[in-house]
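User: Hey, my collaborator sent me this sequence without any context and asked if I could get a structure. I don't really work with proteins. Can you help?
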Amino acid sequence: MKGVDGGFGSQKGLEMANCVGCGYCCLKTPCDAARRLYPGATACPQLRWDEQANRYVCGLMTIAGTVGESYRQELYAGAGCCSALNSWRKDVKNRHHNISDPYQNPLPQIFQIFLKCWAQEFISSDSIALVLANYIRQLEKADYAEKEINIIKSHIAHCLKENRHSHIKEFMG
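Assistant: No problem. I've predicted the 3D structure and written it out in structure-token form, which is a compact way to encode the shape of the chain:
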């Protein structure tokens, strides 16, 4: 099957297959729309597991009206999967992981939005490091496991780094 409008998947020799909803793309490499909407996320928050259908569904694809239509067009809805050799296609299951999975961002979307706003402010890197260290101490007091704290810390650092303007990245440290 060829990609819509000669786009993704229309290259000679690239075989397309129907999407089976295995979640591989969204969990491993979020699309451009997800990266725009959720900067710093390591897996797309719009990915939903549908128990009845036994497959993943993209929340952006289910939005009604012209907004949903623009996402469906951008994401080539119905064009198929270009990862036909992906082993997940033969083993479709819920792969949403718990907080101990380093690939799944455990930070709630509302906190990610806060981090994005905070990262864009003219705040020294030293101040950010001090607040983050205090936050880690509070997590330790709340009996979070060291592994969970390290995962949370890495996701916060990633979110801050991805949203920090280049002209303030090195401001005072």
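In plain terms: The beta strands are 47-50, 55-58. You can pass these tokens on to your collaborator as they are.
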